[in-house]
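Weekly modeling sync, notes
Attendees: AB, CL, MP (scribe)

Item 1: holo prediction request
CL wants a bound-state model with beta-D-glucopyranose before deciding which constructs to order. AB pointed out that an apo prediction alone won't tell us much about the pocket. Agreed to run with the ligand included and paste results into these notes for async review.

Input as submitted:
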Amino acid sequence: MVNVSPNSEVPIDAAASQASTLVVYVAAAFAALGGLLFGYDTGVISGALIFIRQSFALSTFHQEIVVSVVLVGACMGALGGGRLADRLGRRKMLLVTSLIFMAGAIVCAAAMSVTTLVVGRTIVGLGIGFASSTVPLYISEIAPARVRGFQVSLFQLAITVGILAAYLVDYSFARTENWRWMLGLAFVPGAMLFLGMLVLPETPRWYAQRAQLDSARRVLMRIRGTQAVDAEFNEIVATLQQAHERGQLADLLLPEVRPALVIGVGLAIFQQITGINTVIYYAPTIIQSAGISSASGAILATAGIGLVNVIMTVVSMWLIDRAGRRALLLTGIAGMAISLGALGYVFHLPARAGGIAEIAVFTLMAYVASFAISLGPIFWLLIAEIYPLKIRGAAEGIAAGTNWAANFLVALTFLTLVQMFGPSQTFWLYGVLAVAAWIFSYYLVPETKGRTLEEIENSWRLKRPRPLPRP
Ligand code: BGC
């Protein structure tokens, strides 16, 4: 811990300051393990299901339940988790989340019946929901404004790494058909999250909101590595004073909160109904239907798509505090719309025409790359930035819960849409929805780059039609 002498305004020496900045990076990285578990636990089931099906002789209906119960649990977890994070604190909530992840992994790995497996998957879903509403919140409240985009996007990076890790783990256990290890390995990042959160700090903003101002200032000095935290501290306190009393759920509908709520919920829906998880969950099926018939070829292409997802998320993190949120969001969504149009066209061409399968894989990669620089990280970032402190957890939970509900809806309807209308029309439908997402973002999404959370909050209160200047 950094040694601070009271009443001094002088920054502690450079080494101490670096060490403290490191605290923020370490805290963000540990919290992001919640994202790794999110990606891993949603991705791992595609490969594990083949063997679970055999072990328990599952009907199609039971398979659908084993897969989708996670999404239902996540939706409930996200909705309730945000409010709990307001009450218990972000750090305690992450400790609870890690315990849930560990319990879920054990129950799934040891399940001797479908019922136990479904219970285990529901517990895992709850953990994912808690993580998705609390991790971005925790990171955004400890990060300095200058690098907040980068640090909160560690969450999305961890999701993509988790998905890729799940593909690889599935692949390596496939020979031994050991689905128990596939599901049980999630225990490891769960335990790491627990150990990390035992020693990492609560956020200064949560302390301030609970009127524990001494703790708020102490943590702020620790994570900024300096005693000169007056400006940030005073801004937090002043913003809270303007907000008067403790947040109620009804506050979500206040005129200064409503626009932010519309943006969070709108982006949550658009992130899903533009089809990302049809690719993440069904990539091998899509690739096979485009003409790569061997299973291993399809799996390899899927891993390639997972890798593109990771790499482009890193690119986005590098750009997000430089180019800003809006520029990336609008460019990426435009790329998604174009690649979805192209994907629909590829499936429209005569089946097995020369080179079609390769073009389909390339187009899928372009689509995932466009998502990874835009709607992927920026949705999770914005919902951690745009809400007033007093109801931040609850509002973020609503946005995250909506995201899981939309995810569930798309996962449930994709194969039916393909059967009824064919792949071309289905991808074109997602393409049209991407155009709608672009228009929505263009007119409603504010630029939050470089602003403190308090500046963002105050800009809503001032009721400017466009709260922050466009780049
Ligand atoms: C989405 C997930 C998706 C993942 C893919 C996340 O931002 O919320 O639904 O599976 O990105 O990288």
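Recorded for review: The pocket of beta-D-glucopyranose is lined by residues 156, 159-160, 163, 271, 276-277, 280, 309, 376, 403, 407 (CB under 6 Å).
Action items: CL to compare against the apo run; MP to circulate these notes.
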